[in-house]
Amino acid sequence: MNLIASASSLNSTLETWFIQHQLFNGNPYRIKENLQLPFNNAVYAYLELFEIDVNFIQQLVNKNHPVVLIHLGDEFGKKNKSAYPLCNLILRSYFFSDLFSQPDLKDQLLWIPNGFRTGVGPRLAGHLLPAPQRTHLASFMGWIHNPDSFQGERDSFLRMLKTIRKSKNQRFWIFEQWLNKHRHPSRERHVFSQMALDSKDLYLLSTSGFGGGNQVGLYSAILENSIFAPCPAGNSPETIRLYDALECGCIPISLSHEFIHSPLALGRFGTPPFPLLASWDELPSFLMTQKQRFREDPDAVKALQAKCIAWWSHYKREMAALIHAKFSTLMPKQN
Q: How far is Cα 164 from Cα 201, in angstroms, rounded to an integer?
């Protein structure tokens, strides 16, 4: 099997390790622009984050190569899908029930999770800190002010945060202590005003855009020391944050979305065990309840964490096995 990707896709895709090693058994990537066709007579798996190269797929089809398309980044469901009928199998994230229920695609279209960001994982499940040893009850690090978030979830998340933020005097006291350690007061004051929405139950670090502001080492270190991880929707309900949290042994918190329950998506191998809220307004009371529960019965929270870790490990194994089985039907027969 040949795992092919455009240079621009490899340069921009956050989950390259997950795709290569978790879903495709460690097969090396080959750069599409450097490829001499035909490379060999095996299956071609073509990963594309941007515009699908229909001509490239057609060349493979004309030479009777089985083609698997790994279609990423279509969170709004608006990208050109004219190449789908040419492919033997399409693996894509971002679940749309009308697309996955199309009769002409149901046998060749398979949903895959976004997966964790390269560098956040992989993590060894046996090395993850149990809940009682973690520093933060909950944490969120990311872009809160996303104007295109699904059904305005980031806006509602921000409104909730404003109800639990520290007082102005508290924030400026913290700021003055912090400012003494930095060299650019005006810049630091601006950054502080954007990031200091926090409470004693929720560690929060706001960033200024998608994928920006948090180096992966800091981001994963905070997750590894958090019990819960709120995962508000980004452009789509399917946010990479959910998988980052699971990989780091957090208990994700999400609103209820179709892809979470669907047996064609995240619900394929059993109902996800993490908590679902009706709205983000419920988060403060949820965290307060969980903190009290943790004080009274820490083993109960530890058990829920263990259940999430086990479920995610099982999901990754089963998804990899399913993809392997699909690929096996496409491999050329050996003489």
A: 9
C-alpha of 230 from chain center = 13
Whether residue 38 has a cis bond before it, omega within 30° of 0? yes
pLDDT at 40: 66
> Does residue 137 surpass a pLDDT of 80?
yes
Q: Is 17:118 a contact under the CB 8 Å cutoff? A: yes
For residues 185 and 32, what is the distance between their CA atoms, to the nearest angstrom? Answer: 47
Residue 294, Cα to own-chain centre: how many angstroms? 27
What proportion of the chain, given as a percentage, has pLDDT over 70? 84
Cα(202)–Cα(60) distance, integer angstroms: 51
Phi, then psi, of 113 in degrees rounded to 5: -70, 155
Place of tokens 């980031």: 154
Strands (E), the chain: 2-5, 29-31, 44-48, 67-71, 89-92, 109-111, 136-142, 202-206, 226-230, 251-255, 276-277
Please state whether beta strands 276-277 and 89-92 pair in parallel, antiparallel, or not at all (unpaired). Answer: unpaired
Q: Residue 98: its pLDDT value, please?
A: 94
pLDDT in tens, 245-294: 999 999 999 999 999 999 999 999 999 999 999 999 999 999 999 999 99
Q: Which of 239, 211, 50, 30 is nearest to 119 (CA)?
A: 211
Closest CA to 122 of 234, 247, 272: 247
Q: Is 94 helix (H, G, I), strand (E, B) or coil?
A: coil
Beta 136-142 vs 89-92: how paired, if at all?
Answer: unpaired
| 109-111 vs 276-277, strand pairing mode | unpaired
Residue 43 contacts residue 327 (beta carbons within 8 Å): yes
Residue-level pLDDT at 89: 97
Determine phi and psi for 88, rounding to 5 degrees: -75, -30
